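Entry 0007
Protein: ABC transporter permease
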Amino acid sequence: MPDAIKTTAQDETAQRQDSLAPSDVQDTAPVAGKPRSLGADAWRDLRRKPQFVVSAALILLFLVISAFPTLFTSASPSLGELAKTLQKPELGHIGQADWFGYDLQGRSVYARVIHGTRNSILVGVGVTLLVTLFGGLLGMLAGYFGGIWDSLLSRITDVFFGIPFLLGAMVVLNAFAERSVWVVMGALAFLGWTQIARVMRGAVITTKHSDYVVAAKALGADTKRILFRHILPNAIAPVIVVATISLGVYIVAESTLSYLGMGLPSDSLSWGGDISDASNQIRNSPHTLLFPAGMLSITVLAFIMLGDAVREALDPKLR
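Output (structure tokens):
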């Protein structure tokens, strides 16, 4: 009798395993095995979000355009033909130079938009890397050591935070006779690190009281190992979100400075410079303004969408 009951139980278990769909087995596999990390869970959620896929595809396209502009146009962005001054777009024309029309000097708007992507993306990415490294390191030191170091670094952060961003950048850039891409990047990074520092400081203060940090200290781990092995990986998530969203803000800041004549020089290709040159022709030739402004808006929107998607994936409360 016990053998019959045992055989029946084995048969029912086998039937349940046979009826389990392959997708169910795949979904339940991580539960039985090694649990996924926060990064793996975030990537798994991001791949399922249309918002992330669309924004990532657009950003990848912009990066390719900035790195290899000649793949998208063979027209010269600086060569002008006065016979084509303010000529309107001809979308059905075979030549790429005619797609967006021509500006006041007879230069191809399409070629200038394509080649102007490099400086705008370079400034945005460069400033984001600089402020993330400097502000993140400063905020991590202030949050971990506390005491007088926290007070000193926090007061320095408050001083820079109180300076108007664009106004301060204009004052800094006005001190340079030649404003190259690297000078603009340095000026924006000089004033833009404060938000990253505050976010990192708060995340480190929350993380340093965790059990695994206390255990690492009890086991004799040095400060460098605790900071970069235990605290940084668990406090970097909000910094990544802020940095991703801020990248679009820095692109807008560079374009604004170029529009005001305080950014890149007039001979450098920039969306802000083209918008400034076309602002006087908005009534008669709106295409000279709409295309660079549209490219700028799409780029900034893509980075904001990417930042929102990353924020939702890294924040367990928003899942």
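Curator remark: The chain has 14 helices and no strands. Confidence is low (pLDDT under 50) at residues 1-10, 12-32.
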